[in-house]
Design goal:
Transferase(Phosphotransferase), domain 1, two-stranded antiparallel sheet, Prot_kinase_dom, Tyr_kinase_AS, protein serine/threonine kinase activity, kinase, EC 2.7.11.1
Length: about 130
């Protein structure tokens, strides 16, 4: 993917979250798997945000559905819009670099890493200089 496409995807991801937040919705589970690729009639490939199972209006109390590696490591018990913004930054890092933002040891990490390593092995995320 070109830098132009990656930058467009980051903008689209930002616009989606800005829209949700303007309506008082917290997504609470932003990660690359929750963006679908969409083939536009003009040949562009855009992204669309999905998986609103953990979304809610206003403050999300006592529920943490975010995946390891994309959730704020401070792990506040009550996610807010700031939680989505932190996760969005982690998604940007993955889009732009093709690498995970940070790693934590554990079984969940191993399982999660295996699911997405296949994506990176396809070569869809070449090095960005």
């Amino acid at each position: 993917m070109t830098l132009e496409i990656r930058t467009a995807w980051c903008l689209q991801a930002t616009e989606a979250i800005a829209y949700l937040h303007s309506k008082g919705v917290i997504h609470s589970d932003l990660r690359p798997e929750n963006y679908l690729l969409y083939s536009c009639p003009d040949g562009r490939i855009d992204i669309r945000l999905c998986d609103f199972g953990g979304s809610t209006y206003g403050k999300l109390v006592g529920l943490n559905l975010s995946d390891l590696g994309f959730f704020d490591p401070r792990k506040t018990p009550d996610p807010t819009e700031a939680t989505d913004i932190f996760s969005l930054g982690s998604v940007f890092y993955t889009i732009m670099s093709g690498h995970w933002p940070h790693w934590v040891d554990g079984e969940e990490l191993s399982s999660y890493g295996c699911r997405v390593d296949e994506l990176f092995e396809k070569g869809e995320f070449p090095t960005v200089s």
